[in-house]
Amino acid sequence: MKSIRPFALVAALAALAITALHTGEAQAQDLKGKYVKTPTGYLMVLRNGDDVVAHLERLAVVEKIPSASFVGIGFMREAKFGFYDFSRKAFDPKTFKDVEIANLTGTIAWKEGKPSIHAHGLVTDGSFAASGGHLLGLTVGTGSSEITVILHPEKYERFVDPLIGANVLGLPGHD
């Protein structure tokens, strides 16, 4: 039986590798038909149930975006915002359901080899009341969301600023 165990281990590792490969393909396929290249970057149209932040992260990886700014609008099933409490180094979250995102603004940068999305937004409800803040999560509702991504030529990295204990965007040649 000892001779079977190494074979079983190799087979299990191969299965994990194939699963990881297909997972990456599935993530890339999630973007299929959801964006087009434009002269300045990309136009992304997301639909019901799409996670806005996850799709922006996937776009950054698939298209090898060095860094970018983005703006967007659309109907959201759920928008989760946070207000940063510097004394606790944590966000105070609040969730809004079935709202229009009147403005979504943010940047795509990198941190520790992964895309880092920083976004703020403003949502309105059926009574035209508005709320907003730092975006913690955003899920598209019925209808769609349109996001324009404007590319920057250099790769920007985020880092934790030790003076404030929060992520900031680093610019090349500036500390």
CATH topology of the largest domain: 60s Ribosomal Protein L30, Chain: A
What structural class is derived from the secondary structure elements? alpha+beta
Indicate the CATH architecture of the largest domain. 2-Layer Sandwich
What is the total domain count? 2
Largest sheet, in brief, is:
6 strands, antiparallel
Distance between the termini: 60 Å
Radius of gyration, Cα only, in angstroms? 20 Å
Helix content: 10-25%
Shape: flat
What's the β-strand tally?
8
Strand content: over 45%
Our count of helices gives 2
State the order of secondary-structure elements, H for helix, E for strand.
HEEHEEEEEE
CATH superfamily of the largest domain: Hypothetical protein, similar to alpha- acetolactate decarboxylase, domain 2
The mean pLDDT is: 86
Show unreliable segments: 6-29
What is the class of the largest domain in the CATH system? Alpha Beta
Q: Describe it for me?
A:
Residues 1-28 form the signal peptide. One of its GO terms (molecular function) is DNA binding. It comes from Variovorax rhizosphaerae. Keywords: DNA-binding, Signal. This is PPC domain-containing DNA-binding protein. With 175 residues, this protein is an alpha+beta fold. It has two domains: 1-30; 34-170, 60s Ribosomal Protein L30, Chain: A. 22% of the residues lie in helices and 55% in strands. The protein has helices at residues 4-30, 52-62, and strands spanning 35-38, 41-47, 67-85, 90-111, 114-124, 130-152, 157-161, 166-170. Strands 1, 2, 3, 4, 5 and 6 form a six-stranded antiparallel sheet that branches. The chain has a two-stranded antiparallel sheet with strand order 7-8. The longest helix is centred in the first third of the chain and has 27 residues, at 4-30.
